[in-house]
Amino acid sequence: MQIYPDNRMTELTKIVIPVAGLGTRVLPASKVIPKEMLTVVDRPVIQYVVEEAVDAGFRQIILVTSDHKSAIEDHFDAHFELEVTLERKGKRQLIESIRDIVPPEVTISSVRQHYPLGLGHAVLCAAPLIGDEAFAVSLPDVLLYHPSGDHGKDLKALVREYHATGAALFMVEPVPRERVDQYGIVDCNGEKAEPGKTMDIVGMVEKPKVTEAPSNLSIIGRYILPARTLELLRETEPGAGGEIQLTDAMQQLLAESPMKAYSLQGKTYDCGDKLGFLRANVRFGLSHPELGKDFREIFEEFVRETR
Ligand code: G1P
Question: What is residue 193's DSSP assignment?
Answer without folding.
Answer: P
